[in-house]
Give the backbone structure.
Amino acid sequence: MPLALYALTAGAFGIGVTEFVIMGLLLGVSRELDVTIAAAGLLISGYALGVAMGAPVLTALTARWPRKRVLVGLMVIFIIGNAACALAPTYGWLMAARGLTSLTHGTFFGVGAVVATGLVAEDKRASAIAIMFTGLTAATVLGVPFGTWLGQHYGWRASFWAVTLVGLIALTVLALLVPQDRTQPETSDWRAGLCAICRRPVLLGQLTTVRGYAGVFAVFT
């Protein structure tokens, strides 16, 4: 597999850690920012809402951009957002910074998956996507426990600084290893996509996914 594919994996790892690591830091955040644990927990919900709203909007706005530029731009936003989280003086600031960071989530995975399939032969496309999403799995299994340990020993801000560093590494690797687009990205028809989402089989599939993840995150949090 090409090294550029592992650059996407590194980006997926960083974004996955950012999404999940706050779950282990709620007590520290609530104490330092003088909010209830329930209010601190809304930092998870706020991020989720940002992912849901940001993915379709950013994907539509960047549809005609070269995919490498999109990935690099998203990683820059990711770095700025996590640095802002680490510096947050108030709860509102932290929520806004989490919201900014969340905007990169869905679009990165969507565009990254397309780039991943373009890096390999047709018969290896599924494997390429699987390798990229290994970064998300590693974030859940390794990154989050380490981020929680770091936050509990050195303060929750240290966890966000660590994720910012991961983002800087991922940005460097993406800029160096991911090749420029060979062809102009196809313009997507958002209206056709919206019609497809409204089909009964798609809605049932989405409902299954939503219920499954809702159960996982309720327990995880």
In short: The chain has a mean pLDDT of 86. The longest helix spans residues 125-154. The chain has two domains: 3-187, 189-221.
